[in-house]
Amino acid sequence: MNDIFAGRGSRMGKKDQLKSGSAIPDKMSRKDFETELAALQTELTRLQTWVKAKGARVIVVFEGRDTAGKGGVISRITARTSPRVFRHVALPAPSDRERSQVYIQRYIAHFPAAGEIVLFDRSWYNRAGVERVMGFCTDEQYERFLAMVPQVEREMIVNNGIFFRKYFLDVSQDEQRRRFAARIDDPMKHWKLSPMDTESVRRWWDYTAAYQRMIKSTHTDDAPWFIVPADDKRRARLNLIRHLLDSIPYKSVREDLPKIPKAQPRPKGAKEGLRAGEIIPSRF
């Protein structure tokens, strides 16, 4: 598992890859991406119907380096699905009360009930990532977490019949720097920038060591880590969604779709349109 991250900061250039004989896939066009994504999103709605019908429970953890695209793939998963089934959980920094709780307690509160799929946009693994690197937890808390979490995942999640998937989205050092620069240049992405995130650029190798240890310690038969190479965003999103769908044994469920009824007759004297309020200006 350590080899997953080895040398990611000094990836071979295109000429070196050509010399080595490794194939470099062409950039996927937006049209091809959207065609493939639409097919996967249709399958996600079928998974959704099955989860509701069977009362199944699913937890999906999304971890990864900053700028790797966790939010992007989650938004593609939830774009055509019901927020009452697919719940996106992205917790803020813990409150003073939450800091006094058992560490994983505030995450357990968001675990799925029957017929729900919970997508954790970062998770309890913050302790092994940002908290470890930035010194927000003690060495004792960190070591206790790594020893405890495989047992918690096995006993509280997997053995309780919950489908559990853990994805780590990985990008190269050069690609991370490029994406941070793009965020600085794009006003619509400024909200994604924070001193904590950009610190990950400076501490690249500290984070590499932390992630290597995290995955080595918590990659188990019950709850394996799945690594998603994410320098190519479009392919990463498609590959992750396809893997998620393939990993759950759902089946198509026949739905009793409603029929559109005949409208009631118009009452005598009734007028079309709303008779109160203000209509907004038409500017487009």
SSE layout and pairing:
Elements: H1 14-20, H2 30-54, E1 57-64, H3 70-78, E2 86-89, H4 96-99, H5 105-108, E3 116-121, H6 130-134, H7 139-157, E4 163-170, H8 173-185, H9 195-202, H10 204-218, E5 225-229, H11 233-247
Parallel strand pairs: 1-3, 1-4, 2-3, 4-5
Helix pairs in contact: 2-11, 3-11
In short:
The chain has helices at residues 14-20, 30-54, 70-78, 96-99, 105-108, 130-134, 139-157, 173-185, 195-202, 204-218, 233-247; strands spanning 57-64, 86-89, 116-121, 163-170, 225-229. It has 284 residues and is an alpha/beta fold.
Explain this structure to me?
By secondary structure, the protein is of the alpha/beta class. It contains eleven helices and five strands; from the N terminus they run ααβαβααβααβαααβα. The protein has a five-stranded parallel β-sheet with strand order 2-3-1-4-5, with helices on one face. It has helices at residues 14-20, 30-54, 70-78, 96-99, 105-108, 130-134, 139-157, 173-185, 195-202, 204-218, 233-247, and strands at residues 57-64, 86-89, 116-121, 163-170, 225-229. The termini are far apart. The protein has a domain at 51-247: Rossmann fold, CATH 3.40.50. Helix 2 (30-54) packs parallel to helix 11 and helix 3 (70-78) crosses helix 11. The model is unreliable at 1-21 (pLDDT under 50).
